[in-house]
Each structure stands twice: as structure tokens, then as C-alpha cells.
Amino acid sequence: MAKYNQFALIPFLLLAVNVVHAQGVKASPYYPTHAEILQNYKNADALDSALKKVTYVTGIRPNWQAGNNFFWYSKRSGDNQVDYIAVDPEKASRKVIFNRAELNGKVNSVTGKNTKDNDFKIDQLFFTDDKKQAIFKTDREWYNYNLETHVCLKTTDTVYKKVDNDKPLQKRHYRWEGANNDPVSPDKQWEATVKGGNIVVKSLKSKTEVTLTTDGSLDKPYGELTWSPDSKHLIGYRIDPKKEKDVYYLLSSVAGTTRAVLKSHEYAQPGDEFTSYEQYIFNIADKSSIKTDAEKIDFFSAPRLQWRYNNSRYFTYEKADRGHQCFRVIEVDVTNGKTRNIIDEKTNTFIYEQRIYTFYMPQTHEIVWVTEKDGWRHIYTVDAISGKEKLVTKGNWVVRDVDSVDVKKREIWFRGSGKNAGEDPYNIHYYRIGMDGRNLVELTPEKGNHSVSFSPDRKYFIDTYSEVNIAPKIVLKNTINGKKLMDIEQADLTGLLATGIKLPEVFVAKARDGKTDIWGVVYRPANMDPNKSYPVIENIYAGPQDSFVPKSFSAVNEMEGIAQLGFIVVQIDGMGTANRSKAFHDVCWHNLADAGFPDRILWMKALAAKYPQVDISRVGVYGTSAGGQNSSGALLFHPEFYKAAVSACGCHDNRIDKQWWNEQWMGYPVGPHYGEQSNITNAGKLQGDLLLIVGEADTNVPPESTYRFADALIKSNKMFDFLVVPGMGHSDGGPYGRKKKRDFFVKHLLKAEPPARNTDELANVAN
């Protein structure tokens, strides 16, 4: 540990030296010569190669054995070898079983082959109950390796139990799974089908058929049938189908053709009409029907039904209204079709539909529900009879996700962030709490971003945690109280720091309200001169569906690579993104063009005020998809700050992009604000330097979103660069596009000529 801490401090000490050295000295702008630029590219490639060769562990995949008291995992070690390690939680022991070279040698001695170590791969591996023999599969053959005698033999004894590490305590059904429509009734007496658009019930004994409806048709059929548990009623829907409209794209360069190939696929856009469902109850005994007094379902398909425990009179279903401002759990009485709301949540902004969580406990008539109704995402229990709600978790922090619900122990296992004072509020920690809100157990109290893997019986768990600039640590813990049993892995950064890399800095500044903390990261060149000031490039993705600044350790990423060319690269989560308070998130409502820019700009200004090496007179920005929309928007709506942008496959107009994503944040119906915030509508405002990238075969965001933006720029007489990648889908342009991106920023922010790639100018630069 002493060795690890010593090296972990190096980048911060270097940074402190740089800052002190620069105090009182005005940094001069960094404008490299062409020769220096070529050297930067060469150094960046060399650093990237060096980083990829450094061995350190960021996580493990445990393979639990029968009995749940033993697991093994593999890890890369020095000289590109793989070690196989066994862990015994009861003994708190860890030992290397064999490495790839050792095991390959054993197999070669059996087969007579000469397989190279790097070509040797284990496909499956398990151990006998006494843990004395390892049975593994390689090259389609099975072998038995005696761990005591070190004898390796071929074997055919390969029966073992596979364990699902990710299996929750209780299975839950998701709303988007659709109706539970088994055609055969629970008592096995009837079979329900749809013929010619009408419902027909057939007796499985007599084979006689009864038609329950006559007004259905192929154009407007009945369907989505669900039986009541007592088989006395059938729930179905009168359906008004609406076909999704197509979008089109051209494949321009298909091998063996001389003409472009036109492709199309269904793609719902904001405002498009959806298939709707009207709910009916059919009585099998008297063949009568009741139309429930429920509203027509015109968002999602027919829902999954939940029946009261040992009671076939009542069922519930969930309904998220189009526009995302209302979510209900609705109960229906099958005897009269009357409905009532058990949960009825409404908001003036939006309910994040994809993060609605419900778990039903029929035997106690309870629902576990996660909602932001009190301003923070928290867990509630709801009495499904009375509708009474009880808050389980509370405070100015966020429940990120529910892992499992233990019905017997009445406990909820969940992930949360922002609860631990003094650390990044986005860091994920794991907890367990009673349904009464008592006995909260924090399983992962250590500072950092945690990822947990439980043993199948939940007796143990493996906790992997790190920070963006703090090496990963992997420990084994007891789930009863979260107590650490043993260390499993500790990443050694000695080799990594020897490359000269500067680890990123976590930086915090105030938002537009002057109160809220905005968190981001900063990447610097390895050879940064403290007496120089460097352009800033922001990696942006302001999609409201999540937060995006990295929180776990990773030495190799694109931001690190771009920084080596002579830039300070940053990533920020501004207001309007998720995983903070409801008010923080609500900034995006009807307001995607905002993209948190006021917070981002203030954050970078604060960074420049602290570090003279940060030159915010030269700020670039790049992003993909929603980030492509954001990066172009930076130049259109904030040209006083952002000077250059690379925008890949952007959704430049939210009316052109996918329905489910855009209506979630921009609302329904489609109003004037959609057009007012469109990059296409505002193309005439462009002032900075822009590179647009799009793959012609993008099926995520229609390519015409970028084409229409380019068309609007041309009609506004705006100059820009444009790269269309033939055959490519939703992407930043791939390796070619990423080279164009780097060269673009070098040219426009450093005012230098990038390498002449067609003559391979870099090949002549000395290492």
C-alpha cells in the first residue's frame, strides 16, 4: 500500500509544481511549429501504444463454483500472460492456480502439439467439489488437471453447474414486456384466439367455439388477450393499428454494384400517431363484455396485468401517458369495468419513463415504487389496496437503481449516489435497507465509484472501486455487514506512471445559480509546459438520459490521446443531465438547446482562473449523436466562447430524431419550441469553424438530419467542412473520422498544419 500511495501522488505533485511555477508568470499561448506538431503526433501514438501495453487490473469476473464457497477468475499478468486465480472466502485465501504458459505446456505434452502461449485460450473452466482438480476446455477438447500431482489428462467428465452472477433475488417483470397473453386458460379448459379480427374461445374438451365479438375487423381487430387466474374472464383490447412510417438512406458504395442501394426501415418521429388500445372484459360464462372506463392506451402496447393475490376480481396495470407528465398504476374491477388509481403521479415537467421502477408483492398487496416526486429519486412502498405511500429512502441524494427486493426479509438492495458527504455526488455506492426505512446498511462506504458482484447465495460480494485518477481496488466482503474479508487485487500504477502520462484531474465549479456544484475532469499533455497556455477542447454529450463524465479509473481513452497533441481536454456534466436532483434535471425540459452551456462555460472560466495554462480564448468542442447536436449548438448559440466544433451524426433537429427519446425531453405535442431550438433553423448563426461527420447508413439518427443541416448552412452561405462516410452507421466516423477530428482542431485552434497523411509524413519523424 505504501508503494501504491507514493506513486498515486506523483501526478498531483507534478501538477502542483506546475501551478506554483506559473504563479505570477503570464503563460504565453502555445502555437507549435509544424515540426513540433509532427513530434506531438508521434509522441501521442507512442504514449497510446505504451499505455495499452501496461498491465493493471481494473476488474474481475468471478466464476463461482457449486456450493458458493469458492470462485476463480483470470487476469492478465506480465509478458502478456494470463493467470488463473482461486479464492476461498471461508479461508480468506487467494492463490494462483496456473498461468497460461504453464497450462499450455501441460496440454502440449498431452496432445503432442506445439501451440504458442499467446494462441492458447481456455473456453470453460470448473473445479471438482474437493477443489483438487481443474477441468477445462481448450480448442474444443476437455482436460483434467490435478492441482496436487500436476498431471494433465484428457477427459470427458464435463458436467458442471453454470452460475449466473447477475441474477437478482426476485424476478421482476418490466412494463415494456407487454401483455401476459397465454392463449390457454389457467384451468386448461379454454383456448382464446383471434379470427378475422374477432375473439373466439374454444372448449378444449368439446372443441366447440364461441365468438365473443362481432365488430372486430382485420383493420381494427381485437387482441392482446389475457386470462384471469380463475379462467372466468378474458381481458382484451380493441386495437386501432397505425403503421410506423419509414425513413430512408442510400448505400452509395456497395461492392459489385454500379448503382446506389436504397434502404428503408420503420422509424417513429415526434408527433407520429401510435397504435391505440381500448380495454374490454369478457365474461366466459354468459359471453358478455364490458368496456372498462379506462382511457384509451395510445403510448406503448397493451400492458402486463397484475392480479390481486388469490383474487380474480381485480387486476392492475401501469400507464405512462404520452408526453411523460403522468404515470399511473390503475386497478380494474372485472365485474363492472370500473377503475381507480392506486398510484397517480403528475408533474409539470417530465417523468423519466425509462427509470420508473415498480415491483409487485401480491401476497402483502404492496408495490415497491421508485419516483422523483419529492425532488430526489427515492424508494416508496405503496399499499395496493388503500393507495397509501410510505417513503423508504430520503434525503438530498439519488437512488440510482434497485438491484433486488428480498420479499421474505423485507429488504431492498439498491445503488445510490450523492449520499456520502465529501466526495463526488455521482459516485455509486451500494446499500441494503428495510422496507420500513430502517436498518440501512452501507455495503461500500469507501470513497470512490463502486461496482459490485454478489455470490449466487448473496453471502459474499466482490467490490471494485476507483476514481478517475485513483487506481482500482478489488476486495471481498461479507454481505451481512459489508465487512471486508480480504483484498483480491490492487492495481499497481508504477508502469503506467513511468510512461509519463498525467492522470486526469477532477475539477468542481459553481453552476449558473451560483450554488450548485458542477463536476468535470481535465486531461493535460504529458509534456505540458507550465509557461505556456493551451487551447481547451470539450468532449460534450448533454443527453438528459444520464450523466457522462467518467468516474472510474481508465488510462486509455480518446481525451487522453487528443490532449497529447497540445490541448487541455475536458468533460463536464452540466444542468439538464441526470443523476442529480429533479430540479437539476428539469433544466432540459422543452430546452435541449440549453445543453448545460451556461454551467459548462462558467466551469471552464473557473478552470482558467485557477490555472494560467488554460486558454479559454481558444475553445473547441466535439460530440457524437446528441453530442453532435450539442457541439454544433455550441457554435450557433454561444459563438462568443466556442470557436471550433466537430459534430458527428448529430440529431440537429429534434423533430427528425426518434420519437421516444425526443418527446421524453421536448414534450408532446410537438410545439414551436422544437423548431426554435433546431440547429437547422439556426444555421445562419454559425460563426466558428465546423466539421460535420455522418455515416450514410445511420439507422439511429437519420442521416438527413445532418444533410438538412448542411443544406441550411449552404443556403446561409456559411463555410464548413463535411465528411460523409460511405456504408458507416451511427458513429463518430471511425478511425478515419477521429483522425480528421484531431487534424481539424490542430489546424483551427493551434493554427498549425497537421501531418501530410497522404505522403505519410509522420513516418520520417524520429521517436
General description of the model:
The protein has 767 residues and is of the alpha+beta class. Among the domains are: 313 residues, Rossmann fold (3-Layer(aba) Sandwich); 92 residues. It is built from 13 helices and 42 strands. Strands 1, 35, 36, 37, 38, 39, 40, 41 and 42 form a nine-stranded mixed beta sheet that branches. The chain has a four-stranded antiparallel beta sheet with strand order 2-3-4-5. Strand 39, helix 9 and strand 40 form a beta-alpha-beta unit. It is globular, with a radius of gyration of 30 Å.
Secondary-structure topology with pairs:
Elements (H helix, E strand, L loop, with lengths): L1 H7 L1 H13 L5 E2 L4 H20 L9 E2 L6 E6 L5 E7 L4 E7 H12 L12 E4 L5 E6 L2 E6 L5 E3 L35 E6 L2 E6 L5 E3 L10 E6 L5 E8 L5 E6 L9 E6 L9 E8 L5 E3 L14 E2 L6 E7 L5 E8 L5 E8 L10 E5 L4 E6 L6 E6 L5 E3 L6 E9 L4 E7 L10 E7 L6 E2 L6 E6 L5 E8 L2 E9 L5 E7 L3 H5 L6 E6 L6 E7 L8 E8 L18 H6 L4 E6 L8 H5 L10 H14 L3 E11 L1 H12 L6 E5 L10 H8 L5 H5 L12 E7 L8 H12 L5 E5 L8 H16 L18
Parallel strand pairs: 1-37, 37-38, 37-39, 39-40, 40-41, 41-42
Antiparallel strand pairs: 2-3, 3-4, 4-5, 6-7, 7-8, 8-9, 10-11, 11-12, 13-14, 14-17, 15-16, 17-18, 19-20, 20-21, 21-22, 23-24, 24-25, 25-26, 27-28, 28-29, 29-30, 31-32, 32-33, 33-34, 35-36, 36-38
